[in-house]
Amino acid sequence: VGYSSVLTCPPKSNRTMVTWKISPKVGGPCTLGYRADQNKTDRTNCSGSMNWKFRPDQDPALEIRQVGIALEGNYTCEVVATEGNFHKTYHLTVLVPPRLTLYCDDHGNPVCEAAAGKPAAQISWVLESNSTPKEEGHDNGTVTVLSKFTAYSTNMTNTTCIVSHPAGNQSKSIAC
């Protein structure tokens, strides 16, 4: 989320037409088109964040700027060339790194929260804990995971929470 993504088309030398057909999860479909014989581009219902990366006559790659969850979906490039028609389809999945918070609750127990990640993060503790994480889904497709550390012994001084996520792992330590 927040980065740019570039999707490429099948590399063909004598392209006569290139069409990007985009079906995002949110909103209606859009198309970007290029005709070589008229050196003309066309766009229908595409947001400003989607455009040709370079000049489509040289490279018909699609650039998506500021990728967001709403842009998840299928992206198909159709190339018409003298050798035939060629298709390449991408399924765009957006990862959202969770925000990690570690704090002490009213009873002096460490609580680790991985907020608004996509997909849901995994929470573990450096020392064994019999904690059961709780998940809360949000309307935008992200998930908040909350885990309370419950120690087997009470002489704990420092506790470390580890959050594992495809967008990157994080850890924090706290003494309650």
TrEMBL record:
Record's subcellular location: Membrane
Keywords, sorted A to Z: Disulfide bond, Glycoprotein, Membrane, Receptor, Transmembrane, Transmembrane helix
GO CC terms of this entry: external side of plasma membrane
Domain Ig-like residue range list: 60-175
One BP term from GO: regulation of neuroinflammatory response
Record's bilayer topology term: Single-pass membrane protein
PROSITE patterns, per database record: IG_LIKE (PS50835)
Protein name: MOR1A protein
Organism: Fregata magnificens (Magnificent frigatebird)
Lineage start: Eukaryota, Metazoa, Chordata, Craniata, Vertebrata
